[in-house]
Design goal:
With about 325 residues, the protein is α/β, with parallel strands linked by helices. The protein has two domains: about 5-130 and about 210-315, Alpha/Beta hydrolase fold, catalytic domain (Rossmann fold, 3-Layer(aba) Sandwich), CATH 3.40.50.1820; about 135-205. It has helices at about 45-50, 75-90, 100-110, 135, 145-150, 155-170, 180-185, 190-205, 240-250, 265, 270-280, 290-300, and strands at about 5-10, 10-20, 30, 55-60, 95-100, 115-125, 205, 210, 225-230, 255. Helix 1 (about 45-50) crosses helix 11, helix 5 (about 145-150) packs across helix 8 (about 190-205) and helix 6 runs antiparallel to helix 7 (about 180-185). The chain is globular.
């Protein structure tokens, strides 16, 4: 991944990596990380994708090297931030690839800015069902900050992260994502990150699970190529949600990767990058049509659409 660059937008510094082919010479791909992660989650697939695409991987506010202000940490707020970053960089239209919470942001971006979205690709995304691991729900409970401060004290943090990495090295499927969890725990020593994650989690999750969903708007993907990838051993957002995709968006391409957890792009980077490449190279980019969008919104679902519309009509 290339060196970190910074832009200040609305008074907040945003970190990002921009690389691959020069802007305007190749399809642009916006890479959105998940909760508690940063742009480096895409390191394993970066070089492969950089051969054919313009790549933009930001640290979303509250994460990585970006600022962590008191502000809007909703999916809609993040989508607005991505639009503004793309605008400043001079990138007009993108295919969006989002992992986990980044998948929810990607869906929101496509919903808010269909005129700027060519394709939508999601990896283990939030926003399709209610279930989510209890470890994330805990971040929204009262007293979260004190608990996290205690858990991330220097000595305690070392014990916790070491234990997580030892469990990860056991080879058991239930523990395969704990190395990434350890990295997140390490990063939570920063007060601003704890605050941002709490605001983010409480905005989309309560004690029963996810509260923000794309289910009522999934029919809008009829106008845009959609691919969803899940790992069979995902213990954060269950792979059963992949079935929901097939029901809500029958034209979506759904891929379930064997021997993979919540981070399929890290578990099998070459296979994952090939999936991205195949999806982009075999689909026509969506082109925004206000009349078609109006028709979709008015009809309220895919039942009124012709089942044999050609690919060019999906634009």
């Amino acid at each position: 991944m290339p060196d970190t660059e910074f832009l200040t937008i609305h008074g907040h510094r945003r970190a990002y990596a921009l690389g691959g082919r020069p802007i305007g010479t190749a399809p642009a791909l916006l890479l959105l990380h998940g909760l508690g992660c940063d742009r480096h989650t895409w390191d394993p697939v970066w070089d492969h994708l950089a051969e054919r695409y313009t790549l933009l991987a930001p640290d979303m506010l509250g994460h990585g090297e970006s600022d962590k202000p008191r502000g809007d940490y909703s999916p809609g707020g993040y989508a607005n931030g991505m639009r503004d970053l793309l605008t400043v960089l001079g990138i007009d239209r993108v295919s969006v690839l989002g992992h986990s919470f980044g998948g929810a942001v990607a869906m929101q971006f496509a919903y808010q800015f269909p005129e700027r979205t060519q394709r939508l690709m999601l990896a283990g995304p939030g926003g399709l069902g209610t279930e989510v691991t209890a470890a994330i729900r805990v971040l929204g409970l009262p007293g979260y900050d004190l608990a996290l401060r205690l858990a991330t004290l220097p000595g305690v943090r070392h014990v916790n992260t070491t234990a997580l990495r030892l469990l990860r090295s056991s080879g058991l499927k239930d523990f395969r994502d704990l190395g990434e969890v350890a990295d997140i725990v390490e990063s939570l020593k920063e007060p601003g990150k704890r605050y941002a994650m709490h605001r983010l989690v409480t905005g989309v999750i309560d004690w029963r699970g996810q509260t923000v969903t794309m289910r009522d708007r999934a029919y809008l993907t009829e106008a845009m190529p959609l691919c969803v990838v899940w790992g069979t051993d995902d213990r954060v957002v269950p792979v059963a949600h992949a079935k929901i995709v097939s029901e809500l968006a029958p034209r979506a391409r759904v891929v379930v990767m064997d021997d993979s957890g919540h981070f399929p792009h890290k578990d099998h980077p070459e296979e994952f990058a090939d999936l991205v490449d195949d999806f982009i190279s075999t689909t026509q980019p969506a082109t925004y049509s206000r009349a078609r969008w109006r028709r979709l919104l008015r009809d309220g679902g895919p039942a009124h659409l012709s089942p044999v519309e050609p690919a060019s009509e999906l634009a």
